[in-house]
Amino acid sequence: MTSRIDPLTLEVVELIGTIVARYHEEYEEAAAKHSLTGAQARVLGLLSGGPTPMRRLAQQLKCEPSNVTGIVDRLESRGFAERRLDPADRRVKLAAATDAGRETAERLRGSLDFAREPLAELSDEERTVLRDLLKRMLGVTP
């Protein structure tokens, strides 16, 4: 049985792809303004939510733990991150953002205008519908 994609679905998929590409492009540019790579900025953003096990970071980034080690090493050398032992399990290493790292992550998020500006043109109701549809597509309960 051959699956055919109807024109509307194809258009929606292409629009989502365009949005994702533009977001990544702007994210990379914003990261570069802070002398960070996109991967470093992403890790810093994740760490600004609280200390995170290195293995979980690798899962969230869909990469090898050794890659996360290198990224955290570079963030640590700049004073943006630090390693800690997990008080609940001393075998687990946590990465955590420093105050400087959290401030940088906040400035980085604040400089991302691509999504914020177009979303500002939508009403609260439209943004709520969009959010709920995106969550539904991701299998997340709104």
TrEMBL record:
SUPFAM superfamilies: Winged helix' DNA-binding domain. Transmembrane segments: none annotated. Pfam families: MarR_2. One of its GO terms (biological process) is response to stress. PROSITE patterns: HTH_MARR_2 (PS50995). Residues 9-139 form the HTH marR-type domain. This is Regulatory protein MarR. It comes from Streptomyces violaceusniger (strain Tu 4113).
